[in-house]
Every structure is written in structure tokens, then in C-alpha cells.
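Task: complex structure prediction.
Instruction: return C-alpha cells for all chains below.
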Amino acid sequence: MNFLSPIAGLLMAAAVLPPLLLLWFLKLRRARTPVSSQRLWKEAIEDMRANAPFQRLRWRWLLVLQIVILLLIALAISRPRVQGAGEPGQRTILLIDNSGSMQAVDTGDGRTRLEHAKDVALARIDALHGGGALFSASGETMVLSFSGDAVVECRFTSSAAELRRSIEEITPTDQSTRAVPALRLARAYATNTDPESPWPVGGPAVIECISDGRIPDLADRFLEAGESLVYHRVGSADPENWSFSVVAADRDVRDPRQVRVLIGLVAEGDARDGELVLRVDGGVVGTRTISAPGDADDESFARLDLVLGPFTLDAGANVEVELLVSDANPADNVVWLEIPPPNPLRVQAIAPVPDLIRFGLESLDPASFDVVDSPEAFQPGYDFTVWPAESLGDMILPEGRHLVLGGVPSGLGVSQVSEQAAPAVVMATEALHPVMRGVGVGRLEILNAQTWKGSRGVTELMSGPSGGLVFAAEPVGRRVVAVGFDPMESNWPALPGFVAFLANTASWLSEVPEANAFEPGDVLRLQGTPGANAMLSGPGLEVEIPFDLDGMGQFGPLRTAGRYALQSSGQRATGYAVNRTDVEENLLGSSEVLQLRGSAINEDASGSAKQSIRVWILLVVLSVLAAEWWLWRRS
Amino acid sequence: MRFGETRDPAPTTMEELAPGGLLAKLSRMDVVARRAVRGARSGERRSRKRGGGLEFSEHRDYEPGDDLRFVDWNVFARLDRLVTKVFIEEEDLTVALLVDASASMDWGNPNKFLFARRMGLCLGVVALRAGHRLRVHGLGGMCPPDLAGLRGGSRALPLSRWLLDARANGGSDLAETVGRVSGGRQGRGVLILLSDCLEDGAAAAVQRAASSGWETWVLRTLCPEELNPGANGLAGDLRLEDVEQEGAVEITVNRSLLNAYHTRLNADRSRLESDVRRAGGRLVELDTSLDPELVLFELLRRGGLLR
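Output:
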């Protein structure tokens, strides 16, 4: 049993018990008894008073009953709750987590967490609407499911059948858990049940959350005044599981037929050894045995990064990477990639292009390398464009991918620290960035370097003594590498690292696998024939997508991971890969507490909610009052 | 019936006052005076007066006017000196019975006043039959006039009449009565005070009587309700009202209070006994539930008042 308002009960007890005892002292009717002498009694009482202030308070059943009554009333004011149904008229909102982690099968009976959550919800429906002699409630219940978004499965109703049906129809998703939209929706429904009324017409409902407790966005939310949140926990606290955190592929910039698949794995708990299988268009092209690394990031999980390949892929292909292992969540053991056909490098340069730069770029063996005379002659469609900074002026870079030499263009979030150029050397590099991989700058000397300072979101690839020298940024619709000094005023083009820098830059600027990669919860934005329809198929899904007059259509948010294909009539199908790579969601250890800002909701170990027994306590009070009346009549 | 309320009816005859042939059993008893006392006339008791008694006391030089019959001629023949033989003169013993008739005595089961009167009758009859002079005084209450100069067994009837007619009421005038008895010109003897001694002043009265030559016995009469109230029906939340004095005391009877009462009763008992002894008297505490024969033949005989 716990209490919703323990302070109120304690205050009530503290306020009424002392006056009751005082009244008993005052109202005590004493029998008049003649005695031969009161002298000895007076002396005895004087002796007693020093030691026993309560000696006058004799054991009296009437007094005991009155104290019991007051304590029971105080208990009732504390709003005690025990297992059972709700109060009559109480409104309850069941929030059922159907996020990706709820597909884990870690309860030992082969059933998913979501199935257990639905069992808990059904049990609550039985308790709340099942009737019974003691705990029957005539209140209403609402069912919400939540993962990335909240879905009203059933509005407030007292119909147990309707509620049960809505719970049974809840399906799992692969989305990450976000409870705030659900909480917001629940609060809205809890405080206003009359759509005609602009004002809240209902009191707060009891919100019961059935989840594994991995709800990161609740941590900065407060529990509002008067709000009651009950947490029903499902799932194991220490599961053994493998999941994916990264999946990507790239083609070699010099030989685009060569493909590498980059895989990031997360091993949680004592994850067993497994085998990673790489399939291309359904055929196995490689396997790799994996073991959980010993150097865990923390106590609960460890990361493992792998590169599969390279392997030759002359055309576009569907790539599937599957982890063959027995773990807690089989649903997160496979990822997909839609690799486009090889895209030979096409580079555009705005004149003037120094010869050393031109030689460096041509060494990448691009399929085309076109130089245009002015920025106005810029043509889209190239993998990237090389800009001399002086040709840009204050111009904003057009959408696309760009390499800017000799300065940093506007609109990147990089500001100039000093206009005065000065000799500089490289003090630090962002060696982990793809552009800087293997780029040695130890002997790089710059004759005239302006220094820059990047804002948040801009990566400083090279830093000089007084600011940044080279930056990478990804503003909307663009991907830019900007060299803040003129390479020709440095010894860089003569260093081997410069070629590596150009190769990395070309590779980073031309990579396109993200184009058709999504995560559950994303919205698929599709292009097709204007005004026509196309059929989108996916895991357990087949839906017709209409395209507007601009040829744009959309579907989502995506509920489940997997391969999706958009088939337009007379055209080749376009594939989309939807992968679960949210580490926070893929970690499965269920939480004992639901952590909110300023409060922690402990799990309800029994799996069913505690309900108020205030009415029953008040009935006991009445019974005790009747007993007291009977005793009083007897006396 | 309330706590301490007397159940027994008041006696109306001597037989009811001393039932079971109690008086007949006292025929061979006598009141003991531990030291020589001075009576009003010669009697059966030694007196501190030297004179015409039979028991030799001492010699003293002859003085003109001495009775020549008491000159010891044998001494004169041997020592050629006139000496006079001094004898202890035997006088009668006065027994004074002081019966407390205050309202506090008319309480308890058995009733304290009844018990005191019963003891008074027995002791008075013993004294009368032994040939002593008997005086009877009531302390407070509504008592007949004091009896004085009773002598001889035949005077048991007026004694019993007096005791039967006495009514307990109001407060006690112990100090005044003892003062009156002590200041009288009658002979001294044994003063027996029958009282519950619940008022202060009993020790002072005893001291005054002793200083006047009375050999004083305090027979403190307490009932079971006073000796052990918890075992005799005192319980609950009570307002105790004194039968003699104004005012009341409110109590809730519990174990602690009863313990405190017993502690106080024992302290009072010790203090009274000490005061009485220091004043030259003797104290015997009598429980009214005791058999009168046990009191007379055991307690008082062993205590030294009777023989």
C-alpha cells in the first residue's frame, strides 16, 4: 500500500489527536465517591504528577475507538492505495510502449515485451472494468500507444470490450521511444474531455505507463501538480543483446566499383559470439565472426566497429547485413542498404584553377573534369565543384557539394578572426573526420594565412595558432569543405598529404548512400511522376502513394525497419532501407524507475496498479462509530 | 453500593455490639498499666504515692509529725537513729476511653465506628470488671454526655447504652477532648484512643496526655477500603469527596496511583507510630475486618494493653 497524500494525513492526525485527548481530559465524567479522607489521595496524586503526566488517562475502550476513528480518517486523507480497481468515476489512461525495444524477447517465455505489456494492460482493464464485490469502478479508461509518436488507440470509454480490442490491436514498431507526445496527449485528454468546452472540464486522470522504462525524453519533464503516474515495468534489467549502431557503404573514389560496408555494433550485457553475414541481392558475399569486445564503454554495453569488404559491385544492389546470434531482440539483428550504381566522379571547377590543384584533382581519375569561367556558369549535377574563394565574393554557395580554396564563403557559420594574413603552421587536425584520414600536415607551412573561427556545427579540420584554417560544414542542401588559405601560398601542394586530402574530400563530397537510408520514425519523401500514383511496399505493408503536381509524395512516419520499395508503373523499383541504429533504443535493459525531472516513479512490482481504498476506510470508520455508540449505550 | 459505603446495620443492643458472647470471654482479662499511676483513692493498683500501702518502698529520716507506727524500731535499736519506713500506697486505676465519632469513622466495611465501639465496649467491660474506674468520652459526632467514674461490672450497661447511642458525624475534636481529660483533677491511668487518626494532631494529643501522666494507647482503626482500596472496589475515573471536609480530589485509578497511595499510607503509618512512641504512647493498628477476639486476645494482649 502506498499513499498519494501522506503529508495531508499526517497533518490531520497531528491536528486532531491532541485535541481529542484534551477533550477526553476535560469531558471525563467522574463518579462522585465519598471517602473517609482525601489526604492520602492528594499526597499520592502529587507524587504521581511528577512522574506520570498521563496517569489520568485510563484505558478506555471509548477513547481507543475514537483514536482509531481519527487515525482511520487520517489514513483516508492520505489517500492510501492498494491492489485493485480504481475509484468510482476515476479516469485512467493506459500508455503502452510499442517502441523498438519492446520487441525484445527476454522474459524466458518466448513472448515479446509488448505482448507482456498488453497482458498487463488487459489485466488492468479487467481490474478497472471487471466488476466485483470490493473493487468495481464505473470510471472510464483510455488507451494510448507510444513510440516515436503517440497514437490514441481508444478514447475514454467504460466499455471493457472496446478497450480490450484496442489493446489487442496494438502492433510493434521499430521507432525510438518518445513519451512526451504521449504524455502531452494524455494530459490534454485528462483535463478536457468535452470537445465543446474550451476549458478543462475534468480532473487529472491516473496515467499508467506500461513500458520497459527506457524513455530518455521523460528525464526533463516534471510531473504536474495532482498528476498521478503509475509505472508498470516489463522486461529484464540485464538482457544479452547485439544491435547495430552504424550501417553505411561507400564506393572507392578511384574505383567506384569497389564497395565497403561500414558496420557499428553494440554488445549489451554478456552478448554471445555470433556471425555477421553480408548478403548482396540475396547472395552471401561474406561472413565475419564477432565477439563482444572486452573493453566495454561502461558496465552495460560495448561498441564494435567493422568494415566489410571491399567487394566489387558494378551496379546498384540491395545489401543486407544479418547478425546470426541468439540474443534478446532478434528484431534488431538485421540492417539493409540500397547501394546506388557506381557513380564515376564528375568534378566542376570555377576558373581560375591553379595547375597544381588541377593536377591533384585529375590524379583522382574523374570521369569528367570541367572548368567554367565564372560562378555564373555554375552547372548543377556534378559530384562537387571547386571554387576559388575570390570568385565567390559575398555569394552564397548554391545547393550541392563544394570545395572552396583560399577562403571561407558566407553562409557556413564561419567568421574571420583577423583580416591580416600571417605565416602559420598547423597546430591540430580533426584526424577522425573522413576528410582528414591519413592526411599528414607535419611539414605544412603557410605563407599568408587568414584565421577563422567556426560556429557550432562547423568542424574545424585544421587549426593554426590563432584560429581555424580548414573547415567542413553541412548547411541545408550543401556539403562544403573550405580551405581558409590559398594552398598556392603554402608548401601543401608539394606534400603527399595534399593528394590524400583531395582524395578524401572528393570521396566525402561525392558519397550518396544516405539518400535512401532512413530510420524508423522518419518520413519517406518520394519523387515520382507528377500526378501519378506509385505502390510502396515494405514489411507487412503495401500502400499506394499519390504524387502531387511537383512529383512529390510522402509516406510516414515509418513504423518498422526493413526494405521498402517504390514501384511506379513502367519504371524500375526504387529501394529504401529503414534501419534501427538508435543506440539508446537498441539498448534493452529495462529500468526499475521511470525517471522524471525532480521525481522518480518506482515500478509497480506486481504489474497492476494500486487503487484507492479510501471509501473502504471510511466505511470502517462508520462501523467503528456504530460500535462506539453501542458501547456508550451499554455504559 | 458505592465504594466504602457501610452495608451492616447499626447495632441496637449490647449483644449486637458484642456478638457471640464476646463479653463473657473477657472475664479473666485486665488492663495493664506499665508503670505506677496515681489514682483518686486506694485501689488495686500501685501508686507513686508513698504512704499506707503494704509494699515497702524505702527508708527516710524521721521528721516530726510522722506516724510513729511507721518508725523502724529495729534500725533505731541498731543505729540509734530514727528512720521512717515508706510504703507504696495502692490506688485504683483510671481507664479513659476516647472514641472517635467523626464522620470519617462511619465508613468502610466493616464499619470503623462500629468496630471502635465494639472494642470500646470490650475494653470498658474489662476495666470495669477489674475494678478500675472508667471514663468514656466521644470525640466529635453526636455522642451522649461523657461517662465518668464508672466502676464495677454492673456498670457495663450504661457503657453499652452510651456506645449504642453514639452517632458519628462531623469532625473530630480530639485535641479539645484530650485537653479536657488531661486537665481534669481525676486520677491518671490508661488512656485508650480509638480513632482512625486520619486527621493531623493525633500525635500532639498523645503527647499532651502523656505529659499529664496518662499512659496512652492509640488503637488506630482502619477499614479494608483504606488499607487496600484497589482490591476492595476502587476503580475508574472518580471524584473523591471527603466526608468530613470540603473539597474533592479527582483521580483515575490505575496501578501507579494505587502504588503511590500505598506508599503514602505506609509513610503515614510510620510517621504516626514514631510520633506516638516519641510522645510516650503506643500505637496498634487495627483492621476492622479482623475478628474481635483475635484483636483482644492476640494483638492487644501481645501489645501489652491487656493481660
